Amino acid sequence: MFIQAYTYLEKNIFNTLNKKLLGNILFVNLLPSIVLIFLSIGHDMKYIIWGVIVVMFAISIGTYIFLRYLIIRPVNEINNCIIDIASGEKDLTINAVRCSFDEMGDLADNFNNFLVSFRGTIEDIRNVVLQMSVEVAKISEKINESSDAAQSQSEMSDEIFNASSESKIALNDISENSTEITNSTSDNLESVQVTFGGMKNISNEISIISEHIKSFKETVGSLTQNSHNIRSIVSLINDVSDQTNLLALNAAIEAARAGEHGRGFAVVADEVRKLAEKVKTATDEINSNISTMTTLVSHTDDGAKEIEKYAGNIQNVVDDATGKFEIMMQALEDNNSNLLQISSAIEELSVTNGEIHEKVESIHSLSSNVQDKMATSTESSLSLRNTSEELLDQVSEFKTGE
């Protein structure tokens, strides 16, 4: 009955701390006066003082109990809730009991509303952290995949870079060798051209020599024919000399028969005979010389034939060599032209490969940077994952009743 009456008065009249404090102050100030008035009627002063003291003590005790009930109990209720939340259990499902209908009661309601809002916030944080953990795990997986891809890309870029470096060195070597071959081919071509010109000159000289040999051979033939003609004439002269000698002998015989009259004729016949013998001796010597000359001319003719034969062989060899040199010179000219084109193409390829090598080097550097950044991202994602897991563990310590 008393609690119901107090609840009614508190709910309808003393529904604020100001009203309650004002009521307590009025009660504390008016009650002793009322008691003093009642006690002063028909009593002496000593009993009045003791009565006032007893009443004041009772009022103080009652006021203390009332204020404790009015203020300390709601505060303790909220404080106990906070202590329970702050303890190891971190239970957010508890609610502070509304002990009054004043500001302390509103404080309890607001505290409960705060707990409801805080539970929602914790749930939202838990869901967000859980989702974040899932996303971080996905990101970590993607980062690991990207890191593996970056590692593979870095390894491939290393291989490409090394291959490009080797290709660049090989192209430089090829370019240098091609230049040397081109220069050597040009030098050989010049030498072949000079040799070809010399061989053509030799061929022309041999042709001239062959013509001279033919002319010499014809001259030797004419000389042989003339020597035969001279031999015939000498033979004729020799016959005439023999006949003359025979006639001189006959004339001498006839002069001897004539005696003294034929003596002068005998002298003439003797002189003719001597002259015929000298002619015969001269013709024999001429015939011997003609024979020797004929033999020499025959040998000369044979030598001329051999020389003509050798000159013809040399002419054939030189002409064949000249033809082959001409073919070789044409091939060298074609090779030199092709080598110049190859050298130009290799030079362009070397320039292009140099540009590719620079780009590959840039890609290699970027791949290294990407790999470093992926390693940093992996560390960051791992740190974020650990942080989210720690935050989830910490948030999970709160009991929200869901």
Q: Any overview of this molecule?
A:
- With 402 residues, the protein is an all-alpha fold.
- It folds into two domains: 2-128, no CATH class; 142-396, Methyl-accepting chemotaxis protein (Helix Hairpins, Orthogonal Bundle), CATH 1.10.287.950.
- Helix content is 91%, strand content 0%.
- The radius of gyration is 76 Å and the shape is rod-shaped.
- The two termini are 40 Å apart.
- 11% of the residues are buried.
Roughly how much helix do the residues carry, as a percent range? over 70%
Name the CATH superfamily classification of the largest domain: Methyl-accepting chemotaxis protein
The averaged pLDDT comes out at: 70
CATH fold annotation of the largest domain? Helix Hairpins
Mass-distribution shape: rod-shaped
Unreliable segments (pLDDT under 50, ≥5 consecutive)? none
Number of strands: 0
Cα Rg: 76 Å
